[in-house]
Amino acid sequence: MTTSLRRLLRRAAYCTGLILLATVSFLFSPAPRTEAEYCGTYLHLTSFAGFTANCDGFVYMEDARHPAHLLEPREVRQSRPLFILVGAAVGYPCTWLVEALTASGLLPKQVIQRLPPKYQPLLGFYIGYVLLNYAVLLASMLLFAHLYYRLTNGQGSRLLLGALLVFFASNQVTKAFFWTVHQQMFTFLVPLFCAWLLLQSTRPNLERSRRVAAWAFLTGLLALVYGSFVLVLPCLLCGFWQQNRPLRPARLLGNWLGIALLFLLPTLLWIGLLQLLGVTYYNHEAEAYHQLVWLLDAFRLPWPEFVSQVAENGYRFLETLPAVGFFAGLVLGLLGLWRYYKWPIRRQALFAVVGLLALFTSFFAVLGYYQPRLTFILVPLLLCLWVILLPPQPPRWSVWVLMGVALGWHVWQVVSYGPFS
To answer: Where, by residue number, does the polypeptide cross the bilayer (predicted)?
Structure first.
């Protein structure tokens, strides 16, 4: 076994331990007082432990159980077919395992009968989606660890990294969504993947045409998994420009157009397949919440009403910023120290992450649907920015202080009331 593989397995084991410790402790957090405070079903494991099964989860599980539902008109998850197919690929083996354990008596039937009737045949798919939550969160933590060591030139403190990883395992997103069927674990993976694409020390080679085409098409598939992966496209375009600056403007624009078309091709093929089957493509987020499309409606309004609508949505977005306030405070505090002591920082990494923060903030500010859990997508980038602003060799006491802060953060997450969805 190679050294790099052993290192990866050690990190995966540590991250898995953090995930289990954090998410299991959330089961003992205060239960909701009224049904109006969450969307879904609160499942009591004991008299003092439980979790919320989100209302969106039933559709995800039913679609994974019957993927052909994606071909029906106005199917809610039609815009995310690959996530449903992955759910089916994981859910069916879990279902067969549940059936085998039930038939052998190792899993008492009473356990399944305690579930709400509509969830009883879907237990295997529920387990499969929770495993996907774990896999996506683990991948995010491993990717952050990889970026951490690249940003610190391999000299970063393990204790410091361990403290920072606590914030990935313990937060309001994992508290509300780890034990339910949802896609919110991509909140951590999407921005880190974009950072990996842009940072000079990690970005892929985009100088050869075949490699560029492969990256464009394969990352375009991700948009059929989770909508926010569309932000990978501007990162690809920027990365291509950074590595091909000698190109003339006309040729650069031509290449950009080709990358954009290849990135959009998987979605266009999916829409085309639906059209061949006589089904009109349906995007539930755009239809139900007017995500992004509200801008088209707003542009048709008279100027005063347009300004009023934009101001209203801007204010609603600002109301979600407290979700990232703690992490923004960490960055501002370290930025103040840096401006006073003036230690060297990595300029390219700083510009890349600040640019990503601007991109993600702008995108979610104009989304038209605003929730703290969506704005929390800025946190992984704020933590990357914090690492970039670190002094080359921070004093050891500061590492222990951060570990204490991380532990206090987790305790607060456990004992605080909500969120539930």
So the answer is: 12-29, 41-61, 82-103, 123-147, 159-179, 214-242, 254-274, 323-341, 348-367, 373-390, 397-415
